[in-house]
Design a protein that fits this description.
Elements: E1 6-10, E2 17-29, E3 35-42, E4 49-56, E5 64-72, E6 76-83, E7 91-100, H1 106-111, E8 118-122, E9 131-134, H2 144-158, E10 161-162
Parallel strand pairs: 8-9, 8-10
Antiparallel strand pairs: 1-6, 2-5, 2-7, 3-4, 3-6
Length: about 160
Amino acid sequence: MNQGDVALLTSKSYPASVGDCFSFWYHMYGSGIGSLLVFLVKNNSQKEKILLKMVNGNQGNVWKRSEVTIRSDVDYQIIVQAIRGNSFLSDIAIDDIRLTSKTVCATDDFKSLSGTQKLGCYKSSTKPFSSLKNMRNNINWYNIGMVVEQCADFSKQQNSTVT
């Protein structure tokens, strides 16, 4: 692969939606990393392509979660596009891709929660926040998204803002 080369992951066609949640985990690490983009392509005569998410450059040697609320008045597809940067010593990976029928994504829910209490879900016993749910014994490495959702549910029960 050369700088600027593109890898595409294209979904099947989904019916029009007033609110679906597209979520995924991504890992972008290395000094010469490129870009990760998510598009919604409307299945109309113009094949309108709308940029939903863009991440550029080294994001550290960590997995990060991203989600966007999908709204489309016509059937649509989702395209995840990775663009190679200037070095082969960099990697872009995606995992645990989901499209769920929710009117808004969980992060949208978190933004609307009131209160300033901080909450964390950690795999260790370190307690940097005022409320803590230890997820160490619940981690399922084959479905880490489930653990994140459990953490989010706990946060909602605490009426806290996730940080």
